[in-house]
Amino acid sequence: MRPPYPPPPERSAEVRRRFAEEARSERPDLSTLCLLVGAEADGALDEAGMDSAQVELDALAGRLPFRPGGPRSWALALRELLGERCGFRGSAADYQRLESSLLHEVLRRRRGLPILLSVVWLEVARRAGAPVYGVALPGHFVVGFGPTDDQVLADPFDGGRVLTGGDAELLVAGATGAPLHPSMLTPADPLDVVLRILNNIRAWAATRPERTDVALWAVELSLLLPSHPARLRFERAQLLVQRGDFLRGADELEAYAEVVVAVDEAAAARVREQAQAARAMLN
């Protein structure tokens, strides 16, 4: 399959404008934000393609039973539809593909990373009226149903397998070596989900020096979110320099130094040295 190619500049500008607008709305829509990420990654994803993905999520929701019962019944209904009948699940190979982080491709391939498969579960279940939310376990993303004191967890990466308390503990221990803490089971905010997706894309690009283009747009979308780590500005500056945009990279490094100088003068001095080195490359 061809790799995703980015959209032309005018399309990218429109995608980013809409992404920022949606992220700052009163109730950000998770599927819309994920599809806009996909549109920034894949110039072939146009408005008709985004609409088609939303229609597919609606159609999947329409295939669920009407109010099947409590949290466990919802989890089982989603597993039966999405995991068993539709074949949504993940494998180790999916971590090597950028498409595994793009919602429209996950809907097409029925494969993806845990967090993107969870987005499919969340959006289908939400449309059907289920009490559903994402659960951002360390190193693994799952879906929760029902109130936290009567919570049922499902793992979309494993075809929607319903988890026991021991299963969740093993997932956390395998990722961190630490025990499961109740705070890890709280519902994830949609914007935190999007930031985590973008972090995954940045991690994918970080191991592929030839894909600094992907790393850059993932950082720049992250910076459009209302809340994001300040260090992303430093990462963006470094990427600009790496891509040969020395002047803008130096300007960004100096701006970041101004942010950190109040808390770490030595770090600010090191960043200013990097800015000077970037400007020297113009000579």
Automatic annotation (TrEMBL):
Biased composition (Basic and acidic residues): 11-26
Alphabetized PANTHER family for the sequence: F-BOX ONLY PROTEIN 21, SI:DKEY-261L7.2
Pfam (any one): TPR_9
Protein name in UniProt: Tetratricopeptide repeat protein
Bias type Pro residues, positions: 1-10
Domain Protein SirB1 N-terminal stretches: 56-199
UniProt region (Disordered), positions on chain: 1-26
Family: Belongs to the UPF0162 family.
